[in-house]
Amino acid sequence: MGLLRSYVSGEWHTAAEDGVPLHDATTGEEVARVSSAGVDFAGALEYGRRVGGPALRELTFHQRAALLKALASHLREHREELYALSAKTGSTLGDSKFDIDGGIGVLFSYASKGKRELPNATVYVEGSVEPLSKGGTFVAQHIATPLRGVAVQINAFNFPVWGPLEKFAPAFLAGVPSLVKPASQTAYLTARLVELIVESGILPEGSLQFVAGSVGDLLDHVTAQDLVSFTGSASTAQKLRAHPAIIRNAVRFNAEADSLNCSILGPDARPGTTEFDLYVKQLTSEMTVKAGQKCTAIRRAFVPAELLDDVAAAASARLAKVTVGNPTAEGVRMGALASLEQREEVRRSLKALLDAGSIVFGDPEKVDVVDADAERGAFLSPVLLKADPERSEPHEVEAFGPVSTLLPYTSTEQVIELAARGGGSLAGSIVSADKEFVREVVLGAAAYHGRLLVLDADDAKESTGHGSPMPQLVHGGPGRAGGGEEMGGIRGVLHHMQRTAVQGSPAVLTAVTGRWVAGAPRTESDVHPFRKSLAELRIGDSVVAGPRTVLQSDVDHFAEFTGDTFYAHTDPAAAAANPLFGGIVAHGYLVVSFAAGLFVSPEPGPVLANYGLENLRFLTPVKVDDALTVTLTAKQITPRIDQEYGEVRWDADVTNQDGDSVAKYDVLTLVSKEQP
């Protein structure tokens, strides 16, 4: 591959020096060289702010989501090429799919969430309108808008595809450009990923930049509008967090650091139970997938003291079946670590752990390998330890490889305390069918974990497992784990946006948010709003219909027809004794039905369907002989970019003859973009 190129300021950049060699984890052969010499980091950040940011902010959330989906589909067509290159990192095909398919899956997930959960607009409206005055002329609304900087994303070596994509997707959906800097050991795979993205021409110019090599003086140039997201060691995270520019400008800094994740076996999970087998299988899988080089891997395996020998024997039997070697060779289940340097780092950590315990399975200095040289390649045997849980080493030292430590416990209280001694973790799991035990552990350990998996016979078949971060869920953890959160669905998008409270009149908030706010002007005309296509309809278009008088015969008929004979509608004496009603009242759903009959325009037209009601509240009891009027106002208009129709949210306000609101709710309809 030669010297890896950076992609900055809209151009490919090749360093004017030989660079640092990168080696195949299996053979030791040189794969590529890497250097960022000559990159203008200040210029790259400015280019992202000046070119990438405006291009993204012109697009709506739905348009950005559509581009993410197109990009995911494009990358899926190139998986085989990425798999082949991934093998050079020491990854088996299964490991490669975990990384590559997982990263592409994140793009698909955010594309879907963007379409379903975000508006087809450039402003995100958060929460309800806040009334600030008695008369309703002064109100407030929280909104979120994209930060005007660049999301600097510094990634770890273990997931060269998934790592960049899981940071890029929420930033892009938020409307913020990214600058990706991968760890050097596996940067050649990320480099090819970025080449495929750039070659596709799918993304707006400036929305993605890539640096191969060191970060140089990059962080010297970050501003208050930029973000920095880091995945790697806790020590490096501390150094970056303390960078003068990050402190001075209060730059949003997100860290996902190394983590002494735990898995807890419940006392009920005896040998022969489904949960016992699940625990052992998950433990050995987490040790060997990606050769244990996962920030979420199980490092501390807590088991009831009386089951320690049983778990050790069962796990050893499974590990003995794991074939180590060339990841492309048939039958190999675990490949090499990412580099010889990484192997030596794991061996150093193992020596520290052995001060507190002993080896149950494996030999850190020797391993039989298939179709490879055990010394030229960064191979290491899976190593299972057992140790005294009261010693500090298992709770402080992480061997970032195929290593885990069995730790016995004697009570629920003790295992909760031991789990907390990790200082904060990305992920933990509890394997038990005892719901009371699970509840106690979850509530006791949750404050120390970003994610907790409860595994039992009920969810095992569909569970994604202990070590699999999901784009819908937060990925991060407190304390040692970095104190950050990544992904988390829309939470990850909002991390890249500024929340602002906007105060003003209802008319001002309507103009700012693109959503009608109660108290803002309505527009009534001779044309019923249901006769207008999406292209013709405007926010604030309204119809007032009624009144219709509620008769005793209406209430009686509705009760008989629906079977809703609740006493407040059918028993005068009991209804009169009810302190809320003081007499017969109309059914709430009769009120809603009458309102629909009043505001509907029945002839065929642009309105295709009514697909729901939301936020329904009954505010004032409706008595017999009350006269109902309904005001329906176009509140929010959301065109679907891939359909010939869109969604319209209508504000419905049903009032009585005194002008009191008896019911308020949102009506949801699908409306054609053009007249049929």
What would you say this structure looks like, in words?
The radius of gyration is 30 Å and the shape is globular. The strands form eight sheets. A seven-stranded mixed sheet has the order 15-17-18-13-12-19-20, with helices on both faces. The protein has a five-stranded parallel sheet with strand order 9-8-7-10-11, with helices on both faces. The chain is built from 19 helices and 28 strands. By secondary structure, it is of the alpha/beta class. Helix content is 32%, strand content 25%. Helix 2 (61-76) runs antiparallel to helix 4 (93-117), helix 4 (93-117) packs parallel to helix 5 (162-174) and helix 9 (274-288) packs across helix 10 (308-319).
Helix content: 25-40%
Q: From the helix content, strand content and strand pairing, which structural class follows?
A: alpha/beta
The radius of gyration is 30 Å
Shape: globular
Can you count the helices? 19
Q: What about the largest sheet?
A: 7 strands, mixed
Give the distance, in angstroms, between the N- and C-terminal Cα atoms.
57 Å
Unreliable stretches, pLDDT < 50, 5 or more residues?
none
Mean of pLDDT: 95
Count of β-strands = 28
Strand content: 25-35%
